[in-house]
Amino acid sequence: MNTGASPEQLHHRVLDWYAVAARDLPWRRPDCTPWGIFVSEVMLQQTPVVRVEPVWREWMSRWPTPADLAADSPGEAVRAWGRLGYPRRALRLHAAAVAMTDRHAGTVPATEAELLALPGVGTYTAAAVATFAFGERTTVVDTNVRRVLARVVTGQEYAAPSPTRAELTVAADLVPADAATARTWSVALMELGALVCSARSPRCSACPVADLCAWQVAGRPAYRGPARKGQAWEGTDRQLRGALLAALRASHTPVPRSALESLSDNEIQRERCLDSLVADGLVEPLAGGRYRLPASREAS
DNA sequence: CACCCGTGGCT
DNA sequence: TAGCCAAGGGT
């Protein structure tokens, strides 16, 4: 299925394209700190750039170092998270800041292995921060990279639902030997996936590697693999948890249970969601049936 | 490994 | 319009 394009050809085309097409994002600027890059990577997990940027700016202004965030309450992190979604990420970011302050002298650890040990940091984020913030030569594989390589190298419209061994090998083998080049390669491949080789309507006419792309050359055959799992929303716990947390974010004083009850007529689900929010450390129960965002420093 | 976890814009 | 989808991680 492969077009026989050499790694060097791909590198050259993609890097040249990135040099002129890259977005000017604040966490990509040379003066951005490792902490700024770290925060951006966590915020960007499953959340589009346009929604992240204003919140990121606010966080950087308010908490310019890990110690600044660690010194504040986890509840303030959750409040400042706003509507980015998956608010447990705010809690983990706060916990990571505490870990950096306690175990890393207030700095972002520089190696992939140390980063992986931090809360909220998985395979992707560890590799991304290690290379984007510290120049370590890593293999960065996110949803964009997976889709671009599925098309360009393998000739398939979409990557499999979850990463395969073969896929990771393909990505690793394409990483340039030079660390500085590898760093730009990773961000460029992600940018290509975000701006040109998008999931819905790829702009192949604007693609720097269209003539080298196995999927393009094969006539852009439709995806045949297993269906992707749709995400239900209406009536789910996630929806109600979101509504409950939004009410708590909006209030700077404890919220009585009665106010939360108005958000759903389903008492069973309401209690389940409230309990799970407390268990997650996103909500702190107070005496008298009142609730607030967590003020204690020990939330998970 | 399958499932859960928010939110909103785009096709 | 109703899905589909987004720089994933934790359990």
TrEMBL record:
Cofactor(s) the protein requires to work: [4Fe-4S] cluster
Keywords: 4Fe-4S, DNA damage, DNA repair, Glycosidase, Hydrolase, Iron, Iron-sulfur, Metal-binding
Stored InterPro entries: DNA_glycosylase, Endonuclease-III-like_CS2, Endonuclease3_FeS-loop_motif, Endouclease-III_FeS-bd_BS, HhH-GPD_domain, HhH_base_excis_C, HhH_motif, MIG/MutY
Catalytic activity: Hydrolyzes free adenine bases from 7,8-dihydro-8-oxoguanine:adenine mismatched double-stranded DNA, leaving an apurinic site
Organism domain of life: Bacteria
SUPFAM superfamilies: DNA-glycosylase
Catalytic activity, EC: 3.2.2.31
Organism expressing this protein natively: Pedococcus badiiscoriae
GO terms of biological process kind: base-excision repair; mismatch repair
HhH-GPD domain span: 43-195
Name of the protein described by the UniProt record: Adenine DNA glycosylase
Primary enzyme class: hydrolase
Pfam family, one: HhH-GPD
GO molecular function: 4 iron, 4 sulfur cluster binding; 8-oxo-7,8-dihydroguanine DNA N-glycosylase activity; adenine/guanine mispair binding; metal ion binding; oxidized purine DNA binding; purine-specific mismatch base pair DNA N-glycosylase activity
